[in-house]
Amino acid sequence: MNLILARRAAVAALGLLVAVYLIIGWMMVSAAVVAERESVEANPGDYGMNFVDVGFMPRMIEERADDEPITLRGWWIPAARDEAGEPSAIIVVHGLDSNRAREPEAYMPFVRDLRDEGFSLLLFDLRAHGQSGGEITSAGYYERYDVLGAMDTATSRFGVPPERIGVLGWSLGGVAALLAATEEPRLQALVIDSAFANINDLFAAEVADRTPLPAWSVGALRPGMEVVARVRYGIRLSDLKPEEFVDQLDFPILFTHSEDDDRIPIEHSERIADAATHAQSELIRFPGDGHSRAFEAHPEAFLQAVAEYFKGRFDGASS
After folding, report:
1. Phi/psi class of residue 118: alpha, beta or left (left: φ > 0; alpha: ψ in -120 to 50)?
2. Could you tell me what percentage of the chain is helix, strand and coil, using 3-state DSSP and rounding each to the nearest 5?
3. Residue-wise pLDDT tens digits, 107-151
4. Where are any strands of DSSP class E within 78-219?
């Protein structure tokens, strides 16, 4: 009898430990998926650009991170001059805890310069950021559908052929753009700045930054957090490894990264670029530090690299 009671007590204790483990995982994941929403403090008109406010939905999927439909808010900025032939557009996708205007004094002049190169631009706030709806951020997993919704809007509302649409993605936005391209074969032009190669490498630091957990404890809790992320939010962390899926994209990709990035080391872009299978994919390294700031530290060189890449891709699409 005592042995039976002891076994029951052991099973009950184990069940309690598992329950506590999953509850802690649930609480930590719930905190980790909330972005720091920054207000949009400027608009393109403040920097001499014509623009149209736009609202659109992500491309729909069966599984959703949010229970209600999401409206994404953005700006359509038409090209500064009419180009011969078909129009082209660049969708610009910001990073985590940012918005479509970023730090406008440094960022909006770059946007204006890109517009002056002859591209129309669609800037928008990702879900759970800026003025867009939604409460859940997912390291690119669901944001891919935000990018695809922007692509649909550029085509249906502004008449840009899908093969003449490209994406400039910063950090998280770059991961979302890469994922979007694996699902949309007409998307054939990507500039990816400062993206991570594998979520595993950043998981502990990012969770510790967004929750009360110290980084050293995250490893023990990670299996439970992965289960919660999948069951509660539908997020498959195993999908967030660009170095493992970039070989699905059979077109040239331009990667950019600051050499001394203090958040996502340049080795991440090196690994993704090495895994890209197209021979003309390229990584451009920019001297300096700071995360996703090469456009600010080297404005002329960064603009030239991005503009030449997109012009080459769109000219090829037209031929």
Report:
1. left
2. 45, 15, 40
3. 999 999 999 999 999 999 999 999 999 988 898 999 999 999 999
4. 89-93, 120-124, 165-170, 190-193
